[in-house]
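Task card 7
Instruction: Convert sequence to structure tokens.
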Amino acid sequence: MQNPPYFRGMGPEKGVISDISGAKVLAILGDMVTTDHISPAGSFKDTTPAGRYLVERQVPVREFNSYGSRRGNHEVMMRGTFANIRIKNEMLDGVEGGYTLGPDGKQTSIYDAAMAHAESGTPLVIFGGKEYGAGSSRDWAAKGTALLGVKAVIAESFERIHRSNLVGMGVIPFEFTGGDTRGSLGLKGDETVSISGLSGDLKPLSEVPATIAYGDGTVKTIMVKCRIDTEVEIEYIENGGVLHYVLRNLAKSAA
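Output:
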């Protein structure tokens, strides 16, 4: 068991929703990426980020067991997010598994890339296709995404429950509009993404501008639909997630 960092630095009052500026791309994923692709599941080797973490703490490989048996340890679970051996990140050619390009442009694990970006304070986005987050409701698919530092997921469409779970963890889902897709935009993964129109009086289901700065210097602005669907979900995001929202309300009612 580990104490996750969800409430670290949490104050008594909710915050505000801020624009996303200078985000880098952690992964570009295809259609029907399921929560089983995203969420940590099954066994893992000592060469994986989760395995290395346990080995460094003198846990023998025979005692690794599975991600499911260690779901109370966020350090293991976040290292296994997007680590499914069948997931395909379109930033890499012909590579399957939980890999991406790090800040130095070299192939590395999604976890290690996310931590390298976190060190420089760089927010992250994920691009997806149709029915992103399909399948069973797996809470760690959203928890792990948030812990990796992902601030937004931009996809063609979302599975209903996973969209809600992302919002509950403070990650904002966006949908492409106007026929735009990851393919039509020619995304490679070296882009920088900024999303404005979020700060101030954001309304549910607003369309806001997303500016994509390509690696070759080209800049394109598209409109994306913010899939914060209700007023109470606005409050969840302002609070940093549903856990913070509930805890602050409990504290106020007990005062």
